[in-house]
């Protein structure tokens, strides 16, 4: 399906669910971006979930979002249970505005929902020649080190910086061995997941995606990954006033109330301390890329390069819509 047609359909669906034209466009763009960079677990596979939660008034289609100015650099946003895309769009734009005005922007968001890819928002800051760090928490999936019960989310960590070229450096990674979205896609399509990424509810290793969803995902780097998940839960949950410590509701399975996800956006000018930052980052990347390579490696890549290439390649193609997603679209358009 052509991108323009898909965007039109998504806007139509979101407007049908009560979102205004602007919020529908923001949401459609974020979902399409995920598809274009190959992050299918954060794209169309979640569309029905967002709509189901709007239907049950767990996502507020017409939120009254409040922005509190704490200082010229710091803002606090109560998203009023809006769809996460809209809350995050306001959050990153306010962080960019604050950083442009004062050198640094710090924006906390509470009462939000799942907002898709952190890297999508990081790119917006990087395009303005800003460095950014973004954190958001998620429903329980990871057990704290030493525990057998999940408590922390897969809590992504995101860092972005200008590179002096068209291709930004964007590190956007969940702290789990693989992100939860991939497991959900595998479960829906009756596919296996890799070994060593999850345990079932009895604590046994599993490659069954459905058993993994009811069990525990494994963090990257053992106790270090668990510690990072905890850090993100503190920054985006405890610090912002959002849910934390296992209280963020699973958007697919828990319809007892809004998610109350928290986000934290940090942005700052790249040339605050060194006016020749772009020259220095180019040198940093050039030195790294010139290192001797192991057999079979053609190029040493920095985070974000692969995604940029996938986006550029997919821009020339139609978006592939799996049969199961086509059924979702047909159902939501009725």
Name the CATH superfamily classification of the largest domain: Malate/L-lactate/L-sulpholactate dehydrogenase, NADPH binding domain
Percentage of residues in helical conformation = 25-40%
Please give the radius of gyration in angstroms: 20 Å
Which stretches of 5+ consecutive residues score pLDDT under 50? none
CA-based shape:
globular
Domain count: the total is 2
Describe what you observe in this structure.
With 334 residues, the protein is an alpha+beta fold. It has 2 domains: 1-55 and 305-334, Malate/L-lactate/L-sulpholactate dehydrogenase, four-helix barrel (Hypothetical Oxidoreductase Yiak, Chain: A, domain 1, Orthogonal Bundle); 63-176 and 219-303, 2-Layer Sandwich (Ribosomal Protein S8, Chain: A, domain 1). Helix content is 39%, strand content 14%. The chain has 11 helices and 9 strands. It has helices at residues 3-16, 21-36, 47-55, 84-102, 118-126, 180-188, 209-213, 223-238, 277-289, 305-314, 323-333; strands at residues 66-69, 74-78, 104-112, 130-136, 157-161, 169-173, 198-199, 216-217, 261-269. The strands form 2 sheets. The protein has a 7-stranded mixed sheet, with helices on both faces. A two-stranded antiparallel ribbon has the order 7-8. The longest helix has 19 residues, at 84-102. It is globular.
């Amino acid at each position: 399906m052509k991108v323009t047609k898909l965007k039109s359909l998504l806007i139509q669906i979101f407007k049908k669910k009560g979102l205004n034209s602007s919020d529908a466009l923001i949401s459609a763009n974020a979902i399409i971006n995920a598809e274009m960079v190959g992050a299918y677990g954060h794209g169309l596979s979640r569309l029905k979930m967002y709509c189901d939660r709007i239907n049950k008034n767990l996502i507020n289609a017409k939120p009254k979002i409040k922005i509190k100015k704490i200082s010229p650099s710091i803002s606090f946003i109560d998203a009023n249970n809006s769809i996460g895309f809209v809350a995050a769009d306001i959050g990153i734009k306010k962080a960019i505005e604050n950083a442009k005005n004062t050198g640094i922007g710090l924006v906390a968001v509470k009462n939000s929902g799942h907002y898709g890819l952190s890297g999508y928002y990081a790119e917006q800051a990087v395009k303005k020649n800003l460095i950014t760090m973004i954190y958001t928490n998620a429903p329980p999936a990871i057990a704290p080190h030493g525990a057998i019960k999940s408590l922390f989310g897969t809590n992504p960590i995101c860092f972005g910086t200008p590179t002096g070229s068209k291709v930004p450096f964007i590190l956007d990674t969940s702290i789990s061995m693989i992100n939860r979205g991939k497991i959900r896609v595998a479960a829906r399509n009756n596919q296996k997941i890799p070994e060593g990424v999850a345990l079932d509810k009895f604590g046994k290793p599993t490659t069954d995606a459905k058993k993994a969803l009811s069990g525990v995902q494994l963090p990257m780097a053992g106790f270090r990954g668990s510690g990072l998940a905890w850090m993100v839960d503190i920054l985006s949950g405890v610090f912002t006033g959002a849910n934390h410590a296992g209280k963020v509701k699973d958007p697919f399975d828990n319809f007892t109330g809004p998610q109350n996800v928290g986000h934290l956006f940090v942005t700052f000018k790249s040339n605050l301390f060194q006016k020749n930052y772009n020259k220095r980052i180019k040198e940093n990347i050039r030195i790294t890329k010139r290192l001797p390579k192991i057999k079979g490696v053609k190029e040493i890549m920095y985070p974000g390069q692969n995604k940029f290439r996938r986006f550029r390649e997919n821009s020339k193609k139609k978006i592939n819509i799996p049969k199961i997603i086509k059924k979702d679209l047909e159902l939501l358009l009725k």
